Amino acid sequence: MHCPFCNPKETVVSNELAFAIYDKYPVSPGHMLIIPKRHVADFFDTTPEEKRAVLEILDRSKKMLDEEMALDGYNVGINCGSAAGQTVFHVHVHLIPRYAGDIDNPRGGVRGVIPGKRVY
To answer: Which CATH number belongs to the domain containing residue 23 in this structure?
Structure first.
């Protein structure tokens, strides 16, 4: 099966072990994915070096978005396993820009993966 994250056509930010691309199905403008170059399904199976490389790209991507867009916040998330909603089994970290008023009540943030648990 073809992995959409292996051998990307365009990257926005990269280092030796990881890269960032814009999400093809963005939740909000500027939504990026940070991906290790090695094909590995689960974040918990990445090496310490890959984790550091992913976090470096996450920081660099956030800084780039801050300079280019008027943002009010971010959500950062990783889906690990199909029960958690993972559909592409190549690790990817979502960097999702947030804007004041993009939803009525953002309280709970990533807790919204289970809608009834988001607002508490």
So the answer is: 3.30.428.10
